[in-house]
Amino acid sequence: MRKHTLGSLTWIRMMRFTNQSNQLSNEFLKRFDLTTAQFDVLIQIKTYAPLTQSQLAEKVTVTQGGMSRMLARLEKEGLIERKQNWKTKTISLTAKGEQMIDAATPSQLHFQSSFFEEVLTEEEMKSLYTLMSKIEKHSREKKLPPA
Amino acid sequence: MRKHTLGSLTWIRMMRFTNQSNQLSNEFLKRFDLTTAQFDVLIQIKTYAPLTQSQLAEKVTVTQGGMSRMLARLEKEGLIERKQNWKTKTISLTAKGEQMIDAATPSQLHFQSSFFEEVLTEEEMKSLYTLMSKIEKHSREKKLPPA
DNA sequence: TGTTTTCACTTGATTAAGCAAGTGATAGTG
DNA sequence: CACTATCACTTGCTTAATCAAGTGAAAACA
Question: Which residue intervals define the domain HTH marR-type in the entry (chains A, B) (predicted)?
Fold first, then answer.
């Protein structure tokens, strides 16, 4: 039984890598009292605010329910604000949230990059980015094959 | 505020991709009554059995506690067996488990591959695999930077 | 031989995510 | 104008993972 394909091997490696690096990233962000997921949504808010919960959920690949709870937590900690606005809720960072994300961003981006920079050449990193962009875009449009 | 680096952009893309494709994969595997995580450990057992829980946990980047529960579930469903052996537990597939994984493997590997094959050339896939191998290996050895 | 260490695994408590049903306000229809 | 549909968000339930404390059996040591 030797039926692994190049694609499936790549898939496994990628899963392992993201799992592992996500765990390390969570540990790393403890010093800023954040999780990787929280950092991710805060960055999105900072970049795209004002935006609605659904838009946010879609951006970070999470269900609406998950986003609802996650934002409730962030709101309780005073990092974001939600204003009922027409029939949607508009989300924005509080001063505290802004401060938090500004403090964490440089180190976190550097940390994320280090996973690649420490082993790849500039050339390789560019090509990896191009490949990932293609693949990620494709996965968003992908449908399940029929049973 | 434009401090995103190539590395951090790549990181995000990869996280989104694995998240998304993991969800699709779970949905796909429903037709075999498996989750992606379960498929993963069954394959590992099939390939490397006999092995201990700790070895397995390490291979799939999960804590020992997580592995303990996961195997308990698989055992309850009759897919694997655990034998107390000296002071470790030796894990192996049951006939049912073997049958299950053999049935699921071809489609699942094909499905996994399709994320790449549908958008990349043979050339690109090879280079992606090489890059991922380097990165994944590196991440396993990576330590947190000091605060 | 009796006591302590170590090792592999389990388990209780907590956290977070998904799904699907529920809520409440606005829009559209007869 | 009442009534239904729709939309954005919330919430109850379930699943699964982490961490850390617990268990029990073999090893090491005095």
Answer: 1-137
Contacts of A147 in chain B (CB under 8 A): 31
Residue B122 lies in a domain: yes
Terminal C-alpha separation, chain A? 24
Tens of pLDDT, residues B1-35? 556 899 999 999 999 999 999 999 999 999 999 99
Residue at A1 is within a domain: no
Of A10, A22, A61, the CB nearest to B129: A10
B58, two tokens: 């390490």
**B10 located within any domain:** no
Angle A118-A122-A125 from CA coordinates, rounded to 5°: 75
d(CA B136, CA B122): 21
Phi, psi torsion values for A3, nearest 5 degrees: -115, 15
Instruction: List the domain range (segments joined by +) for residue A12.
Output: 6-140
Q: Which of A33, A59, A44, A32 is nearest to A93 (CA)?
A: A44
Across the interface, which of A9, A18, A106 has its CB nearest the CB of B15?
A18
Tokens 């765990």 locate to A23
CA distance linking residue B126 with residue B86, whole number of Å: 43
The number of folded domains in chain A is: 1
Distance CA(A139)–CA(A143), nearest Å, equals 8
Q: Is residue A47 part of a domain?
A: yes
Instruction: Quickly tell me which residue has 């996280």 as its tokens.
Output: B15
> Which CATH number belongs to the domain containing residue A128 in this structure?
1.10.10.10
Q: Average pLDDT of chain B?
A: 91
